[in-house]
Amino acid sequence: MASIKSLAKDTAIYGMSSIVGRFLNYLLVPLYTNKISAESGGYGVVTNLYAYTALIFVILTFGMETSFFRFANKEGADYRKVFSTSLFVVATLSIVFLAGVFGFISPLSNVLGYGDHKEYIMMMATVIALDSIQAVPFALLRFKKRPYKFAALKLLFIFLNIGLNLLYFLVLGKTQPVYIFMLNLVCTSIVTFFFIPEFKELKFIFDKQLLKQMLSYSWPILVLGIAGILNQTADKILFPLIYPDESTAQQQLGIYGACVKLAMIMTLITQAFRYAYEPFVFAQNREKDSKQTYALAMKYFIIVTLLAFLCVVGYMDILKHFIGAGYREGLRVVPIVMAAEIMMGIALNLSIWYKLTDKTIWGAIVSIIGCAALFAINIIFVPLFGYMAAAWGGFAAYAITMILSYFLGQKYYPVNYPLKEIALYTLLAIILFVLMTYIPQNWNTILRILFNTLMIGIFAACFFIKDLWPAVKNRLHR
Q1: What predicted TM-score, i.e. pTM, was given to this entire model?
Q2: Strand, helix or coil at 26?
C-alpha cells in the first residue's frame, strides 16, 4: 500500500501541472471560440495543425522516454550516459526535421493546404522540435523524482501562454490563429532555458553499444506511439481530407475540436498518471508484490476516471459555457470521447507486460490493429455522419486495443486484476450516466444539476465506503 501512496502522491503533483494547469489553459477555449467564429474555420485550422504536431512529437522523441527509464534502472547503469544517449537521438532527429521543413517549406505548406500561410508551418515545426528535445530532460526529472520542478516548468509555460493570449486576443483584439502559434513558440522557447542544469549532466561519451540496444528497444515503442497518437489525432488530420463539403470541413472540425476539449480532463488524468506510472513500474518490478500493486493501481485508476466522467457529464450545463455558442452543437461527442479516453488509460495500465518483458513489438502490433480500425471507420463513415463518426471511431479503436492488450498480457505476464470489483464500479457508473442523460427535458438547469450532483455523490459514497474507509480505519487503529 505504501507504493500505491507514493504513486498517488507523484500522480497528484504531476496532475497539478497537467490537470490544474491545463484547466487554466482551458480558459483559452472560450476566448478562441468567441474571438474566432465557427464559420471562419480558424479554430479548425488550430485543431488540424495541433493534431499534426502531436503525431510529429511522437516520431521525434522515438520512444526515448520509456527507453531511458528502462536502461537507467538496469543494474549498474550510469543514468547520465543513458540520458546523454537519449538526448543525442532526439536532438538529431529534431534538427533533421527542422532542416527538412525549412528547406521544403513551399511544397510542404501547399500539400497541407496552407500555401498562403507558410509561417504557420514554420512556427509549429520549431515548437515541436523544442518540445521533443525538452521531453528528455523532463524524463530525467521524473527519474530523479523531482516532480516539483517538473510541475513548475509545466505551469510556467501555461501561465505565460495564458497571459500572452489574453493580452493579444482580449486586450489587443486579435482574431487570427497565427497569434496562437506565435505565442506557443515564445513560451516554449522560454521554458527551454530552465533546463540548463539538466543539460549540464550530459556525458559527451558516445557509447555505440548502448545506442544500439536503446534503439532496438525503442523502435517498437515508436511504432506503438505513432499508432497510439494516431488514435487520438487521425480523425482531426483526416477530417478536412475526407469530409465531402470542403467549404464547411474546417468549420465542422472546429466544432468537433472545441467540444473534444471538454472531454480532455480524461486525457489529463491519464497523462498525469503516465508521468508517475512509467518510472514507478520499472522501479516496482524489483519488489515481490509488484503484480498486486499493479492490480491495485488499475482498480483505482478506473474508479477515479469513472468519477471524472460522471462529473463532466453531470455538470455539462455549466461546462458548455467554456466554448462559444456557435460550437455547442457538437457537445454530444463528449461522453463518447471520454469513454474512449478511459479505455486508452486502461490500455496504458495493461502495457506494463510488454515493457517489463522487453516484448515491445507486441505493443506495436496491438496499436497498429486499433489504428487500422480507426482509419477504416473514419474513411467509411465520416463522409456520411461527420464528426460523430470520428468520435465513435476513437471509441472502437481504444476498445480493440484494450481488449487485445488484456488477453495478451494475461498470456505473457498474468496479473490478477480485481475484475469483479472493476465491473461493479463500471456498471454503477453506466446506470448513473443513463439516469443523468434521461432527465426529463422540462426540468430547469438548477434542478438538473442538483439531481446530477446526487448521482455523482452516490458513486463517490460507494467508493469511500467500499475502498477508502477501510484503509482509514486501519490507520486509525494502528
Answers
A1: 0.72
A2: coil
